[in-house]
Specification:
mainly alpha; elongated; two-stranded antiparallel sheet
């Protein structure tokens, strides 16, 4: 009977391929289910310069008056009454949509990562597939945590860390008894 064991480098290549392909699949699936907010949908990209307050307000901007500072001693004193901030209203709305998107993306990544870990721990016959799913799940957990980390409070960061550590320790103890 011929030896059917693949060389180690082939096994590692397949394992790494599973990890990468699984996470690409997760990211594409998430983008189909949860589209990312587009900046153009919240803030105008083609705007006309507004030299007056009326023109600014018509473009849904906020007119910022420039104080008449007598201490300016330029050769030619600029005569600017103010400027139009077209992003003061739309930027906070876009930022809120991004924050909500990152929260939902985090929940999806954690759910898919945990599911991959669970399936990877189950005895399915192939150690390479099991390992690939497990490592892919760990990578999905890492990606999800990194994407949401800056938006999470310190308490949520502690909870994410504790949950990830607890799940990995539990799986390690239950699955790999020495």
């Amino acid at each position: 009977m011929a030896n059917t064991t693949a060389p180690k480098f082939v096994r590692w290549a397949v394992l790494i391929g599973i990890v990468i392909a699984l996470n690409i699949f997760f990211l594409v699936a998430r983008s189909l289910v949860l589209p990312e907010p587009k900046y153009d949908d919240y803030c105008p990209t083609r705007i006309q310069p507004a030299a007056t307050e009326d023109a600014c307000v018509k473009q849904d901007g906020v007119w910022v008056a420039t104080p008449n500072d007598a201490s300016v001693t330029a050769v030619t004193k600029p005569n600017m009454a103010g400027y139009c901030d077209l992003y003061q209203k739309c930027q906070p709305v876009y930022d809120a949509a991004q924050k909500q998107f990152r929260l939902y993306a985090f929940i999806i990544a954690i759910g898919l990562g945990v599911l991959s870990l669970i399936v990877g721990v189950l005895p399915i016959g192939s150690s390479i597939v099991s390992s690939g799913l497990s490592y892919g799940g760990v990578l999905a957990l890492i990606i999800g945590a990194i994407q949401y980390w800056n938006d999470a409070s310190s308490l949520i960061q502690l909870g994410i860390s504790a949950l990830a550590l607890g799940a990995l320790l539990y799986i390690g103890v239950k699955r790999f008894r020495d």
